[in-house]
Amino acid sequence: MKLKELNCGLKLLAVPMKNTNTVTALIIVGTGTKYEAKETNGISHFLEHMFFKGTKKRPNNLAISSELDGMGAEFNAFTTKEFTGFWVKSENKNLKSILDIISDMLINSQFSAAEIDRERGVILEEINMYQDSPMYMVEDVFENCLYGDTPAGWNVLGEKENITRLIRDDFIKYVHSQYGSRNTIVCLIGNLGSGEAQVEKLVNKYFGADNFKKWGGNFNEKPAVLDKQEQPQTKVHYKETDQAHLALGVRTFGYGRKEKTIVKMISIILGGSMSSRIWSNLRERHGLGYYVHTSNETYSDVGYLVTRAGVKIEEITKAITIILSEYKRMVDSLVEKKELQRTKDLLRGRLALQLETSDNLAEWYGRQAILNHTLSRTAKKTEKIIAPAEYVKEIEKITVADIRRVAQQIFINQHLNLAIIGPFKDKSKFETILKLN
User: Fold this and answer.
1) For the chain, which end, N or C, has fewer CB atoms within 10 Å of the first or last residue's CB respectively?
2) What domains can you pick out in the chain, each with its CATH number?
């Protein structure tokens, strides 16, 4: 699977699917929170909203949404620390219209001052909603614990102070700097109709505007992440809650490291299912909380593994101790072959269910494509973009010795990080228990 650079300057990844009448167009731009300045933190996400607010051809949100609704399409957008995406899924006969609409949005948006002011209120309410949801907010507190007051540690939604003062010129400058054909990938997944040549012709037609090719000439690269840590770190966000929300994890590896796949397996063994170790121990055996989940995040340059849980306030230290004990068990003892195989079967089965549709498959390929694009720019290297079947083959090669080897690399005292949201003002009692031995 390869990215092909087209005449219009952007890269195309086209993957045909059999036995489907749908197509998903996912357009990903290699910019996000990590590329922002302190005074404009939140602009990537705000801008994502503004692309839906009108062009000269489609003068407002209603014109855009009604045209997409009129073809029965599903559509949305998202912003992350490293990239921003826009996707539309529809019947494959609508591919031409989909590309027309998305390219118009990205290249010709007007960014009306009135629309910016109107959407400002929407973003502020989104921040309020998020701050009222500690189950989700704790992961951002965790990333801030990891990376501090740097772009890697900032919130994707931004600070309210920034949102209230961003003006049209800020958006124009950011778009011209960070967007453009050189930093854009088009992923087309599904029933591609008459073939690759016709698809390339359509993408060149709709994304070939001269101004789009010129953008990005003064691209602001994301700063390198300081990923060194010499002692455990704890960050407590005081909030009157009915339960304590915690995120406890460790630094791992970026996208360019082969160990990332093994980290994924470790996260599932620990807390990726209802039969996983931490779920069984913390929830089923001790009844400390309702939600508990271990996951891993892989950015282009860094990564982490984290366990999130909502637990009884008075039992939070016990919950932390249980999670730490399961981390240590990964280091001290080999996983049984039976448990490892069950985890492999679980992952393979989940992939089969998730990747039946063109939109999920677009996310599969699109994420690889944009991380590769970033890696090629920042580290002058690339990884192979792989199909799900190839990924399963990688998984099957992992041994119990691989699991323990990587566990011993990541589960070390000085790389422990703990984030907590709850009615706590003193973090010292948590610092004293944050250790694996």
Assistant:
1) C
2) 4-214 (3.30.830.10), 233-431 (3.30.830.10)
